[in-house]
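Predicting holo structure, uracil bound.
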Amino acid sequence: MRMVDLIAKKRDGKTLSKEEIDFIIKGYTEGEIPDYQMSALAMALYFQDMTTDERVNLTMAMVESGDQIDLSGIEGIKVDKHSTGGVGDTTTLILAPLVAALDVPVAKMSGRGLGHTGGTIDKLESISGFQVELDSQAFNQLVNKNKVAVVGQSGNLTPADKKLYALRDVTATVNSVPLIASSIMSKKIASGADAIVLDVKTGSGAFMKDLAAARELAQAMVSIGNGAGRDTIAVISDMSQPLGFAIGNALEVKEAIDTLKGHGPADLTELCLTLGSHMVYLAKKAHSIEEAREKLKQVIDNGQAIEKFKTFIAAQGGDASVVDQPNKLPTSRYTFEVKADQDGYVTDIAAEEVGVAASMLGAGRMTKESEIDLAVGVILQKKIGDRVQAGDILAIIHSNHTGINEVEAKIQAAYSIEKDKPELHPLVYDVIS
Ligand code: URA
Ligand code: CA
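Done. Tokens:
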């Protein structure tokens, strides 16, 4: 086989076989196929698209390019959840203990954040003593005992994807549905999940800005997952404003605690119940989505969800007393109010801009090496559809510095205030299964 012939084949719109895709991914991972040939192929794939079989084969070739996590020592159906990214998305922190309270095993590998705000691992580290590094034996034992453990990424998962993603980034080939879908799904499958619940975001703060594109990506990932023998569903949810009120690491832990106690923000609670009920159903801990949802509400109401959060924190060395005394979480030295400069209704909150503002305060990383400030961030006081009068507080900035003019201006600018009450976006647009 010669790479040049395979590039020509795809350029001409023909279908690559499993053997051909394996040859390409193996050769590229091992450095035998150079970047310039892989770039040409990526561009051909971008224009010619891929069949479902090609997508599954590409995904599995990337899975097999590196280590695969073996979760077979953990009892039950391991359901993973993945979000395509958003601002102030606290769902993983809530869902892990929430579904574990119904005996769904959560063996989660999570990342650190880059840009916007931290990842789940960063958020957990704002709990004093919390250990995000566990060897696989300790990890498996914890999940079997408590049904939940979360660790940082380790090992050499999907090196082919790492290399290809970096190449796509500089060859204008990131924005291709089959390439994005196989990239995301390869990582989920390599992490050992039996079943996968995807949260595909749409709206100004999302990777996929419009609904049609989000739906196409969701469908692509669901076909790959099911084609690879993993029960997969996707929820398409709104990211036209940040989720919940809190954006920032310790601030989001506090928000997760509130939500697990039953008094979290309405949108965040609703999305967690939706994603959670699909997780519980796929794990076969309920006979229907509706039953799963009822059970989740019950464990929030009867306190089992928040108890599970305490157990989870303590089992990984963290100080579980933060659950009842959230003031023990890192807090910033200063707070500043951002006020409305006119009367009207909030019609838009540019999620990405709020994320960048939080990042400028130190909540997110500018580079992989930067240290983040766990205490800082933004708490929204108004969301889309709320009525405001000039002088009302739109958001509160939590900062360890006093020079926050630029951040304040960014948050001001992120809010659109108009005379007429806007139509509200649905929180969940669709479920693809
Ligand atoms: N996120 C990924 O992991 N891969 C992509 O290709 C795009 C977004
Ligand atoms: Ca939030």
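Residues 165, 174, 179-180, 183-184 surround uracil (ligand 1) (CB under 6 Å).
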